[in-house]
Each structure stands twice: as structure tokens, then as C-alpha cells.
Amino acid sequence: MPTLHRQPEALMDELLEALPNGWSCSPDYAPGDPFAEWYDQDMRERDRDAQPQGVHLRPGEEIVHEWRLIFTREESDRTIDGAYVGVLRGPGGAHQIFAHYRNVDADPAGVFRRWSDHTPAHGIAHWLQQTARATDTHLIERALVEERQDPLQGTSWLPGLSVLVLDTETTGTHTDEDRVVELAWLLADHAPRQWGSYLINPGVSMPADAYAVNGIDDSLLHAEGGSPAQTLDDALDALAEHLREGAVLVVANSAFDLELLDAECRRHGLRPLATRVGGEHLQAIDPIRIHQSLFGARKGHSTIPALAERYVAGGPIGSHTALGDCHATLHILAGLLRQEEQRIVRRVTLDDACRTGNHTSGALPPLALHHLLALSRF
């Protein structure tokens, strides 16, 4: 059976260019590999299990095994083990791609229907990324049960009754001109309790550099994205309700997300989140800013994946989606408080003493909400 290196260079170049950041690919086991016989049997069994997906092929197409690739995400991503990919042949040549995930409980059938708008290489990239996104939903649904049985940090790990973690994915990093394409929130007390996730079609094309980061492409937004005004209005109403009920807002890189949301509200004539909550300004706990306040803002060391490596057992959780980042941010905050509680309290206590000139000695006070908000300000 031919392996990857026998494929046209043009197709390989297109594949590597189409894959979002964090993905890698390798050919199947080369002839003579001691595991090749076992591997072929394993792949044949996976083929048989995946045959029902053939209903999504266009007329005249069939699965053939001219080449096989194994795609994986970065080693630290625990949502995906890999994918088995083959060519779909039809009268006009290789029109689409057959793909079958390994060890992932996600139904990718829906994305097969949208591949007619893609080249084969972009079909692979689109399917991989959207199925990775689907696994984040399964991850959160499991967390609603499993993490409540095994809490992040006891039954009262945060000052306050609950936290509301917010995250967005966007077309870029300029708050005055870029747009929100995905918004998610995760409500938690000692563990995840409830969540919401919204795709938004902003009416502008996704830039290539933004797609490389978040894996959201135009076809996904056209197929599933809601109108900006209505979707944002619904999402902000849900956020405001939980905040009015006493949840504490948590946002990684809060200055960017909250400023961009305010800009979107002005653009679409919507009431901003702070007004819906009942105030002029929002205060948010920002794990990234707290970490930077304690250890400095070294480039590359203050991202969600980097902080997950430091504060979360086992490293990053989920894919780079708004919902996945909400879940990761929750775990980062729990780990940060568990590891650095005394350092946080000491830093704020010393800052307060320097500002007021009222130097006191003795035991440090217990961690409180104002300690976290003080270190979250820019």
C-alpha cells in the first residue's frame, strides 16, 4: 500500500498550509515496520466501524485506501488521540476525504455534509478542527458530573458563591475593528455547573491568521453562526442574569475581551454587559493578570496553554475554543489559588501598606475576593 511520501507534493503542501496551529501529521507505518501487520488489522476494523458514515458521500463515490495519514494535536491536548484519513474517489477524481477519529466520542456526521465547499486538503482541516470543537462539548458535559464528584479544591475554593468564566474567539486582536465570532461562558461553584456557547457570523471573512489560532472558518460560521445583534443580546442577557445573582466574573485577558464586547455592543446598538448587571463598570478576576502581577509578564509565559502547563495537573484541557478555554481558565484559577494563595495575600497586603503608610505585622489575613480583584487590575 502506498504511503504518504508517494503523494503529489502539491497536495502535501496544501495539507500543511490548511491545518490550523497545533496539528501535525505523519504517514501510516512504512512497509517492513514490525507493527505494520497489527496496524493494518486495526485500521481495517476501524474502516468497518466507520462504514455507516458512507451515507454522507456524494453519488458515485466510494472509500478506497490509496493513502493513509495519522493526524494528531499537540501532545498536551487530551481531547484527541488521532485520526485515520483516506481518499474518497469519484468520477472526477478525489473530491472529498474520508476521516475516522480514534478514541473520540464525537459524531462528526454533520461536517461531512459541508465538505463540498472545500478542496480535499481543506476538507481534512475543516473536519479535524470541527470534530475537535465537538469534543469540548463532551468534555464539559462530563465535567458537570465528574468534577462535581471530585471537586477542584474542596467545596469552597473561591471567595464568593460562584464564578462565571467568560471567553471569546475573534477575527483578530484589535478591539476597535475586530469582531467576536464565538462567545462561551461556564458557571461553577466548587465545580462546573452550567454553560453556554454561541457561534456568531459577523458578516466578514475570517482572516487566515485568526483561523490558524481558533480553527473557525467561514463555512462553519455560515452554517451555524447566528446574527451578531441577536446572538450577542441573548448571550449578554444570560451572563447578566448569573452576575446579578451573585456570580463573580472571571476572564483570562479581561481587558481585551470586555473591551471588545463593549465595542460590539456599540456597533449593534446593544446595552453593554455592565449596564445589564446594574452598574457602570465590570470587575473581573483575571488569572493571567494575577500571574503576571506575581511573576512578571514574560512573553509566551502568560497564555492559557502556558498557565495550564503550570497550574493544571496533566496540562492543558480541551481544544482552543471559547468553551474549552473557559474550562481551562477555571482549572487555572483553582490551581493558581491552591499554589499561590499566601503569595497573593502577601502581595496585596504589602501594596496596601505602602499606599496607606499603615504598616502592620502579624499573621496574614485569609484570601478574599478583593485580593484577587486588586491583582487583576491593569
Describe the protein in words.
The protein has 378 residues and is α+β, with helices and mostly antiparallel strands. It has 2 domains: 4-128, no CATH class; 151-376, Ribonuclease H-like superfamily/Ribonuclease H (Nucleotidyltransferase, domain 5, 2-Layer Sandwich). 45% of the residues lie in helices and 17% in strands. It contains 13 helices and 8 strands. Strands 1-2-3-4 form a 4-stranded antiparallel β-sheet, with helices on both faces. A 4-stranded mixed β-sheet has the order 7-6-5-8, sandwiched between helices. A hairpin with a 2-residue loop joins strand 3 (82-90) and strand 4 (93-102). The chain starts with 8 loop residues before the first helix and ends with a helix. Residues 1-8, 28-34, 49-58, 63-67, 75-84, 86-98 and 100-116 have low confidence and may be disordered.
Highlighted features:
2 domains, 13 helices, four-stranded antiparallel β-sheet, disordered N terminus, 8 strands, alpha+beta, 378 residues, Nucleotidyltransferase, domain 5, globular
Total domains, how many?
2
Number of strands: 8
How far the N terminus sits from the C terminus, by CA atoms, comes to 59 Å
In the CATH hierarchy, what is the architecture of the largest domain at level 2? 2-Layer Sandwich
Poorly predicted tracts of residues:
1-8, 28-34, 49-58, 63-67, 75-84, 86-98, 100-116
Number of helices: 13
Strand order of the largest sheet: 1-2-3-4
CATH class of the largest domain: Alpha Beta
Kindly provide the radius of gyration, computed on alpha-carbon positions and rounded to a whole number of angstroms: 23 Å
Q: What is the averaged pLDDT score?
A: 76
Structural class: alpha+beta
Helix content: 40-55%
CATH topology of the largest domain: Nucleotidyltransferase, domain 5
